[in-house]
Amino acid sequence: MCSLPTGIVPCAPLPPRGVLLARPTQGLAGRVSPRRAIGRHRMPTPQAAAAAADGMAGFGAYQSGAYSQEGLDFQPRLSRTDVAASAGVVLGVCCSVYALAAPRVVSLWFGTCMAALAGTSLACTRALLLERQHKALQRSEEEWVRLLKAGTSLVPFRRSRLHVATFPPGTGSSTSDLRIHCLHGFGSALHSWLAVGPHIAAALGATITAHDMPGFGLSERPAQDEPYTLAYNGEAARFIMDEVAKSEAGATGGPCKRVLMGHSMGAVSVADEVIRDPQGYRGIVLVSPAIFAAKVPGQPPARHNQALDPRLEAVERVVEAEDAPSPPNSKPWAQRLRLCARALQFAAARVILRLARPFIVLTLRSRIRKKNFWRMGLTSAWHDASRLQPETVDRYRFPQLIRGWETGFCRFLAARFAEKGGLLSSLRVALHGPPKPSQAERLAEVVRQHGIPCLIVHGEGDRAIPATNSRALAQALPGSKLVMLSQCGHVPQEEIPGTVATHISAFLREL
């Protein structure tokens, strides 16, 4: 096998379909159920947390699906001591307020306020005690990478460390000069490519890499905004491919050819990177891209040709390209007003996100920790719900066991709104200059000038991004190839991986 750069190590190969890795009978510190641990110790012990990590060892390779439900389905319960402590806190707060602010004559209004204070104090105390139990099961990104023994690692790149997986060629050494990197979509992680990455690597004799975008998966969640931007992740993809190419220098006898693959939001990141610096890119693959193109004559509007799932459509409005094109034949003044409205909308969203962060965090915790939330969302993303396996749902749920996951998610949203439109710059363009070309238009110009081949893969049954959008995008990108998949939803690489891998491999062989 070719040597890889320090910090980038290959993933284990996929096991045969239907074969799960055996779950060890004894964990890192003995298998202890968190529920039983709570009954005995009042709080989850380190042994219980280690047991959860041990049970997730199958997840560590991301392919087996043989992980324990103890951590993911953990439901904290208050002990008698916790209940007594909650009552004591409520009593202390109410007595203090009464002593400081009690009127001479107790009125109905004062009694109502005291009752509301007591209820709020009880709810907050209870939530803090329950959240403390959840926190005891969480680990940092570095701890999970070490405990899961996935064959992946954290690679430093500009203000963050990225969780990177490498799929080596089936022969053990690269026989192709292609270096391929995959970027996942919103709410996902590098596991989104695990069903197709190894097959493409084996078919082409090429090395394929993927990383978790900060805010998702096991990449670090720094305090700075830059690592959460899609532009940052596009630059990180180039860095990772170049590092792999350096480690394999001489293996292929020539310079590497970079190929970027992106799904949905990841496709926006791919476009950002190719527009920023197209040199050295031999091709791009866009799967269900959230890059909205202008209407093509003779076709219905891209957003309104089919029934879209409101939840998925709302998500795509957040992650889509920041400069969706204006309707065709719209007047310049209308375009300027639309640009101003978008800038004000995103500025308001950033302010609300900052002020309401505590409430957003509470909402995220209550939603994300429910298995049914993920099952319903993924069922909408799949065309055929029978193809959605329980282990797939659990892979999406896993980040709830990472310390600081909710803060990282809020930082991603804030960075995304900032990236989609700065208020002052947008207003300046709207008032003084011609509107900037859309991302689709800029990508089309780069593809035309540099002759970069492009493959677009889209499911006909996509309820998040309509299939007509990819048809319009294919019309806009010179020389691009479009593959429409019947009876497939928003996540083709996970729903029908064999078909997707075949199409992508055939396209890449021609580069």
Named at the architecture level, the CATH assignment of the largest domain is 3-Layer(aba) Sandwich
Q: C-alpha Rg, in Å?
A: 25 Å
- CATH fold call of the largest domain: Rossmann fold
Portion of residues in beta strands equals 5-15%
Strand order of the largest sheet: 1-2-4-3-5-6-7-8
Q: Helix amount, in percent?
A: 40-55%
Count of domain modules: 3
Task: Work out the helix count.
Answer: 20
CATH class call of the largest domain: Alpha Beta
Our measurement of the CA-to-CA distance between the termini, rounded to an integer number of angstroms, reads: 24 Å
Q: What is the N-to-C succession of helices and strands?
A: HHHHHHEEEHEHEHEHHHHHHHHEHEHH
Which sheet architecture does the biggest sheet show?
8 strands, mixed
CATH superfamily of the largest domain: Alpha/Beta hydrolase fold, catalytic domain
Low-confidence stretches: 1-7, 11-67, 296-307
How many β-strand stretches?
8
Silhouette: elongated
SS content category: alpha/beta
Averaged pLDDT: 78
